[in-house]
Design a protein that fits this description.
There is one protein chain. By secondary structure, this protein is α/β, with parallel strands linked by helices. It has a domain of about 110 residues: Cytidine Deaminase, domain 2 (3-Layer(aba) Sandwich). It is about 30% helix and about 30% strand. It is built from 6 helices and 7 strands, in the order αββαββααβαβαβ. The protein has a 5-stranded mixed sheet, with helices on both faces.
Length: about 170
């Protein structure tokens, strides 16, 4: 007899399956909305409907500078970020109803960035569960979730389904 997956694993598996629809070569992200044990919606990151995505038109990169602590010293680091895509969490909010989000949980493959965390904080959800960390915004996002009273947790020991994980680039 096979062992049933726990609910966290089941819903995170679905988020990873959603991420396979993404055409982003830099980071494929999936998100699902769950109320109780009922799946209410899924989404992934990508260009707006009807607009060429990164696989067709290339990434739309902008350069940013970030202060990082390197061996005890602050250093200015140049990073590139693609702005062509709408994040999975944003698409999830766009394509679900507020009434469905009230009291719900979002499972997302990657810890939300600051902008997505802000949007989720006002969306009605009461819990956010993620797998891969996003160190850049971790502290401030975690602090905001605590302040807002939203459960925010990482599934650190989770293993995504075969064939769903892509190399993450910054």
């Amino acid at each position: 007899m096979s062992r049933r997956k726990d609910w966290d694993t089941y819903f995170m598996d679905i988020a990873y399956m959603a991420s396979t629809r993404s055409q982003c070569s830099r980071r494929r992200v999936g998100a699902v909305l769950v109320q109780g044990k009922k799946l209410l919606g899924s989404a992934y990151n990508g260009a707006p409907m009807g607009v060429p995505d990164c696989s067709e038109a290339g990434c739309m990169l902008v350069e940013e500078f970030e202060v990082k602590l390197v061996e005890g010293r602050e250093e200015m680091v140049k990073k590139q970020r693609c702005i062509r895509t709408i994040h999975a969490e944003q698409n999830l909010l766009l394509f679900t109803d507020r009434s469905d989000r009230e009291g719900s949980t979002v499972y997302v493959t990657d810890q939300p960035c600051w902008t997505c965390a802000n949007m989720l904080a006002n969306s009605g959800v009461v819990e956010i569960v993620y797998h891969r960390p996003y160190p850049k915004d971790k502290e401030k996002v975690t602090e905001m979730m605590v302040t807002r009273g939203i459960r925010f947790r990482q599934l650190a020991d989770y293993a995504p389904p075969a064939g769903t994980i892509s190399e993450v680039t910054n």
